[in-house]
Amino acid sequence: MSRVAVLKGGRSLERQVSLRSGARVEDALERLGHEVVPIDAGLDLIDRLREADPDVAFVAMHGRDGEDGTVQELLQILDVPYTGSGVLACTRTADKVLTKYLLLEAGLPTPEFFAFNETAFRELGAADALPAIEERLEFPIVVKPASQGSALGIKFARSAADVPAALVAAFSYDSKVLLERHVDGRDLAVSVLDGPGGPEALPVVEAVPRDEDFYDFESRYEIGRTTFVCPAELPDPAGERARELAVAAYELLGCSGFARVDLMLDRENELFLLEANAVPGLTETSLLPQAAEAAGIGFDELVGRLVELAFARASVVE
């Protein structure tokens, strides 16, 4: 068995979710017989990693520092194998705008969008372009920060009057924002797990919020706020197509180990890729564990496989 450092917490707005993911992972690793070293990532992270001298690190950090390549870069410097995607894939998936441009360039379906940074608004008069954007995207428009997960900072603008407040909310989370055509339909997630023959898509999960207009932060993490259907009951061939698109996005973005890809299925049964998550949640309500369970992979087995994949990738790099 191995000594596994579980990196969790950190400084991001998703800290509490990360702590829950980390705690579940620690329990699973202990049941599997590993020696577990919990580390709440902070200013002493390097010292604690050197002291722990782990065989491998399990990254359970969400949001800033955990999903954007920061902690992955540090682990590479320390020559510690780690779970999940490498620095480049994390950098790509953490930036929703970069992800969407890559999807667009590859010819993969994603809702029409425009993006701005704060400089464009403050110094280049981007606000004057809003009417043209609103006309091309049509209402409602989804306004979201470029780099937050868990639906943080996402607002619906149902009319032009709603756009300024939505932009202010998004800019409070990030210096770059995304304005995206709203897809009216079903909220789907496809988790992808590396297998012997390459990336494999797990069964599709559909998230059906009970009271909210969309699958927001509270819907994701408060038990009872959302109904999950897995495998999702989808019309042919939408289910298989969703899984194919998820694997295509996973490979395009350079993910490894595992990831979750979010999609929308509109009223005409057309699928659209929204984003990918390089370090998907592992809480009681998270979608990856549900999809794995539907595929016959229990939580402990899933955690064990992710550790094995980390070792396998490290041996290839060497």
Shape: globular
Number of helical segments with 4 or more residues: 12
Helix content: 25-40%
* Element order: H for helix, E for strand: EHEHEHHHEHHEEHEEEEHEHEEHH
What value does the average pLDDT take? 88
Could you describe the largest sheet, including whether it forms a barrel?
6 strands, antiparallel
Class from secondary-structure proportions: alpha+beta
Rounded to an integer in angstroms, the radius of gyration calculated over CA atoms is 19 Å
Short précis:
This protein has 318 residues and is of the alpha+beta class. The chain is built from twelve helices and 13 strands. β1, α1 and β2 form a beta-alpha-beta unit.
Describe what this molecule looks like in 3D.
- The relative contact order is 0.15.
- Mean pLDDT is 88; it is low at 214-221.
- β12 (258-266) and β13 (271-277) form a beta hairpin.
- The strands form three sheets. Strands 8, 9, 10, 11, 12 and 13 form a six-stranded antiparallel sheet that branches. A four-stranded antiparallel sheet has the order 4-7-5-6.
- The chain has twelve helices and 13 strands.
- It has helices at 15-31, 45-52, 70-77, 87-94, 96-105, 118-123, 130-137, 163-171, 217-221, 238-253, 287-294, 299-317, and strands at residues 3-8, 35-40, 56-59, 113-117, 141-145, 155-157, 176-181, 185-195, 198-201, 205-209, 226-229, 258-266, 271-277.
- With 318 residues, the chain is of the alpha+beta class.
